[in-house]
């Protein structure tokens, strides 16, 4: 098996284990002496796995190296049947089946072709036995790793335990093991983010009564606000939005900026420490020096360009060749398709905007007082639900479009195809999921004009305005509903759908074959009745988590509870994924990988985007900057260099402009018939903006405070981004990709392996010399 680079035991030696555990033992002994007095108070490590149930799969007292047939004499082979583990044996068998000829005299090769022409219905490695039984199907009484994984990993009763990653790797292969290692690391890193986000939310709750802004809004019974829509929306008192002002303070308070900076730094720390964690896993799983074999050309590419060949500069063999002009033209068509689909998403968002503009008047004229008095919240809630349905429908379309465009590009190898498809699907779904959120965060209420000069769609519908308490409440509602619905739907589709499908398959099997009770079926038939694994591998699992990571970081300044919701979902997600891999899916083919692939680059891109979006959310969407400008420039403490709740006295009145009702457009007059508003005549109304009053020399012109706020917002964006990016780069520089202890171990092991290989070769050469001398002496004596 010289073609397969698999890491197996090489020249058994215990020097590495003794050398490195000696220092750790001394360190732990000193720690135990210091903590011995508190031993009764120390926790008993409830999250640790029970080592009596999990076997020791790793031979820690042996060095390892890539297996090669030419160096077989360097390896210790005690048992040929167990020399290769189960996952490796399945890879070897699959490798052979992919290359074997099944019809003499014809160029018909490989299992994939037999699956394509429907000669075989399916091909998959078998599970080791029932996940409920301890015995393996291969050897009676042998240990069943599937059962161990079900008990120690997939069972819901062990949700608080660490994952048995070594056993997962042994059963499913390194690629799936790395996914669960990354998911576990991401979930663990969410704990500090969730705790800080919860503290920010609790800080808003504890300071709610002392917030001067919300207090002024609740007490503003004499301030009349202009109608939020044409015809049916009434004039309303500012105090009517008291509840929304208090809810807004829970998310938009003085701790928001700190949390935005914290999450930007957290994203960098998460990625940097994941690189260190991945390096440790790669070392433990013998992936440090593992390199993938040169990838073979995809059959589709070979069939398309078989007439045009060139010499491979590496192998020196002729291979199919795609001309540069053909490749460019296909990329242009693919990019045009991506652009068109993004336009479809924008059109869908535009449709949601029209829905919001039209229905706000409908809800304002509703018969039920509860909906009529909360018309804007009802509009936002229904728009979010409709947007979610559109997102789910478009996701089905995006998968087909991405598959078509990727095949149109004709990637040369499987990894190129996978990276291209992954990038398209992520781009489609990211834009689909976040486009409406971007609209609410940065465009809602920004281009509506002012009373008497509103901007309109098709010169008819007036654009939607923000609530008197601000636009942040709409953004919070959008994120909360989308995040909860998306995660609930995903969890149902990942577990509920396979459960229903498998139940239906078993029911049909019993009816067709008359199987009753606990009739034993062969393992291949049991596994065949399970759900096949996704044809794109771990793509759906990674995509779900990456989109969640985007929700957790990109608009986290507007929704501090996002990390907490993500943490709760991921605790369920780990066990849910484990359960479906063990019980509901056929066993996937084990494969090797050194990292999570293109997803790491996408995570870095999301981390950079999160810094920019959070800067704009704080500067544009929230009222943090206007309040800061008022406290230092226009409030009671102006010029004193300090800020506080006492310095915010009068802020609400200063942030509202005055409008003369008689200056309204004819079709903007509010119909107050049947409304609960007082019957007195309204002469003036207020609206959120910084404009001169109607009695000024230039009525409704921007005031000096508007320009101060605008300059402060731009300055904050620049300072915030540069500061956070500096901190991110500094952290990236200070945190090395490899832990020092791991680097020392790698160098030490490399040194010892070289010595051991030299000694082994020297011993072999000396042994051969002795044999030659012995044979030569024998031949010399027999010559006479």
Automatic annotation (TrEMBL):
Domain Anoctamin dimerisation, first and last residues per copy: 30-165
Q: Reply yes or no: does the keyword Iron apply.
A: no
The portions of this protein that span the membrane are 179-206, 255-274, 331-347, 377-398, 426-445, 545-568, 596-620, 706-727
> Could you give a GO molecular-function term held by this entry?
protein dimerization activity
Bilayer topology annotation: Multi-pass membrane protein
Tell where it localizes. Cell membrane; Membrane
Coiled-coil residues: 748-775
Q: Please provide, in alphabetical order, the Gene Ontology terms of the cellular component aspect for this entry.
A: plasma membrane
Q: Which Pfam families match?
A: Anoct_dimer (PF16178), Anoctamin (PF04547)
What is the top-level taxon of the source organism?
Eukaryota
Report domain Anoctamin transmembrane positions: 168-749
Keywords for the protein's UniProt record, in alphabetical order: Cell membrane, Coiled coil, Glycoprotein, Membrane, Transmembrane, Transmembrane helix
Family listed: Belongs to the anoctamin family.
What PANTHER family does the record tag this protein with?
A: ANOCTAMIN, ANOCTAMIN-4
* Protein name, entry field: Anoctamin
Q: According to the entry, what is the taxonomic lineage of the organism? A: Eukaryota, Metazoa, Chordata, Craniata, Vertebrata
Q: Which gene encodes it?
A: ano4
């Amino acid at each position: 098996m010289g073609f397969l680079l698999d890491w197996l035991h090489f020249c058994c030696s215990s020097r590495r284990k003794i050398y490195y555990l000696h220092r750790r033992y001394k360190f732990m002994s000193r720690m135990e002496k210091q903590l011995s007095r508190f031993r009764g108070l120390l926790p008993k490590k409830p999250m640790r796995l029970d080592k009596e149930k999990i076997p020791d799969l790793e031979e820690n007292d042996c060095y390892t190296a890539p297996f090669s047939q030419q160096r077989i004499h360097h390896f210790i082979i005690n048992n040929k049947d167990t020399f290769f583990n189960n996952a490796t044996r399945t890879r070897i068998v699959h490798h052979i089946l992919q290359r074997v000829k099944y019809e003499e005299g014809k160029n018909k090769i490989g299992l994939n072709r037999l699956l394509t022409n429907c000669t075989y219905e399916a091909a998959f490695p078998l599970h080791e036995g029932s996940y409920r039984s301890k015995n393996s199907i291969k050897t009676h009484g042998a240990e069943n790793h599937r059962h161990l994984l079900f008990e120690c990993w997939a069972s819901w009763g062990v949700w608080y335990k660490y994952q048995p990653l070594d056993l997962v790797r042994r059963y499913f292969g390194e690629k799936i093991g790395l996914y669960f290692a990354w998911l576990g690391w991401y979930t663990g890193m969410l704990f500090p983010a969730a705790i800080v986000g919860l503290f920010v939310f609790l800080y808003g709750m504890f300071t709610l009564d002392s917030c001067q802004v919300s207090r002024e809004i609740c007490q503003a019974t004499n301030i009349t606000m202009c109608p939020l829509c044409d015809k049916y929306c009434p004039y309303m008192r500012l105090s009517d939005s008291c509840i929304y002002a208090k809810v807004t303070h829970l998310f938009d308070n003085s701790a928001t900026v700190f949390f935005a900076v914290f999450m930007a730094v957290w994203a960098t720390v998460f990625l940097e420490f994941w690189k260190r964690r991945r390096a440790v896993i790669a070392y433990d799983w013998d992936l440090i020096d593992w390199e993938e074999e040169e990838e073979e050309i995809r059959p589709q590419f070979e069939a398309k360009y078989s007439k045009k060949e060139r010499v491979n500069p590496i192998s020196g063999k002729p291979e199919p060749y795609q001309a540069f002009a053909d490749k460019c033209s296909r990329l242009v068509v693919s990019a045009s398709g991506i652009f068109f689909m993004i336009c479809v998403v924008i059109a869908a968002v535009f449709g949601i905007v029209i829905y919001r503009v039209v229905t706000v008047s409908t809800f304002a004229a509703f018969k039920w007082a509860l909906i009529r008095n909360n018309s804007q919240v009802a509009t936002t809630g229904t728009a979010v639900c409709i947007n979610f349905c559109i997102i789910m429908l478009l996701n089905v379309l995006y998968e087909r479009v991405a598959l078509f465009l990727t095949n149109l590009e004709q990637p040369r190898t499987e990894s190129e195809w996978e990276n291209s498809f992954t990038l398209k699907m992520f781009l489609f779904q990211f834009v689909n999921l976040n486009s409406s959120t971007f609209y609410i965060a940065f465009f809602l209420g920004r281009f509506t004009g002012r009373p008497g000069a509103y901007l309109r769609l098709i010169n008819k519908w007036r654009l939607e305005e923000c609530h008197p308490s601000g636009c942040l409440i709409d953004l919070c509602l959008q994120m909360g509903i989308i995040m909860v619905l998306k995660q609930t739907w995903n969890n149902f589709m990942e577990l509920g759908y396979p459960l229903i499908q498998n139940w239906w398959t078993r029911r049909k099997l019993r009816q067709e074959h008359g199987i009753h009770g606990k009739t034993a079926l062969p393992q291949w038939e049991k596994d065949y009745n399970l759900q096949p694994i996704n044809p794109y591998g771990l793509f759906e699992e990674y995509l779900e988590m990456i989109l969640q990571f985007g929700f957790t970081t990109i608009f986290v300044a507007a929704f501090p509870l996002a990390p907490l919701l993500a943490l709760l979902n991921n605790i369920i997600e780990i066990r849910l994924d484990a359960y479906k891999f063990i019980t509901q899916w056929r066993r996937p083919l084990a494969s090797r990988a050194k990292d999570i692939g293109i997803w790491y680059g996408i995570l870095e891109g999301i981390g950079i985007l999160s810094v920019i979006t959070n800067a704009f959310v704080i500067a544009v969407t929230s009222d943090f900057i206007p309040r800061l400008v008022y406290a230092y420039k226009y409030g009671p403490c102006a010029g004193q260099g300090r800020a506080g709740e006492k310095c915010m006295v009068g802020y609400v009145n200063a942030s509202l402009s005055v409008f003369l009702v008689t200056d309204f457009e004819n079709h903007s007059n509010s119909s107050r018939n049947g409304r609960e508003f007082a019957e007195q005549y309204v002469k003036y109304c207020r609206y959120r903006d910084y404009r001169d009053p109607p009695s000024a020399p230039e009525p409704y012109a921007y005031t000096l405070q508007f320009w101060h706020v605008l300059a402060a917002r731009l300055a904050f964006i620049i300072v915030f981004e540069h500061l956070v990016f500096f901190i991110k780069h500094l952290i990236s520089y200070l945190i090395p990709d490899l832990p020092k202890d791991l680097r020392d171990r790698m160098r030490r092991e490399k040194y010892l392996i070289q010595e051991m290989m030299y000694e082994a070769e020297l011993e072999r050469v000396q042994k051969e010399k002795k044999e030659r001398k012995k044979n030569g002496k024998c031949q010399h004596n027999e010559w006479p």
